[in-house]
Design a protein that fits this description.
By secondary structure, the chain is mainly beta. It contains no helices and 8 strands. Helix content is 0%, strand content 55%.
């Protein structure tokens, strides 16, 4: 299992009500079990949002900086749908489009 440098922290309040952070342990983060496929990427012109179908159940996404830093290490659960088809930047937010199936025959 790969460690990505995240820390578990314990918080303690001192008598002067200041928060003191004490590292407890490194959190082992790595790829989730099962498959992750159908990646789709959208950009706002400088950063990116990546979505994918995930065996954990549905569609997940993560923000990625222009330097390649993944901001949401375990992904954000977006939907129970497993068919993302597009990621669009619409001036203030990313929008993810999904395919539900069905339609005219």
């Amino acid at each position: 299992m790969k460690t990505l440098g995240a820390l578990l922290l314990a918080f303690a309040l001192t008598a002067s009500a200041q928060v003191r952070e004490t590292p407890v342990a490194s959190a082992p983060l790595g790829p989730p079990e099962g498959s992750q496929d159908q990646p789709i990427v959208g950009s706002n012109g400088s950063d990116f949002f990546v979505v994918w179908s995930d065996a954990r159940g549905g569609t997940f996404g993560t923000r990625v900086t222009r330097d390649g830093e993944v901001l949401d290490k375990t992904g954000i659960h977006l939907s129970n749908s497993v068919f993302p088809i597009a990621v669009l930047w619409c001036g203030g937010a990313y929008n993810v489009l999904f395919y539900e199936g069905g339609g005219p025959t």
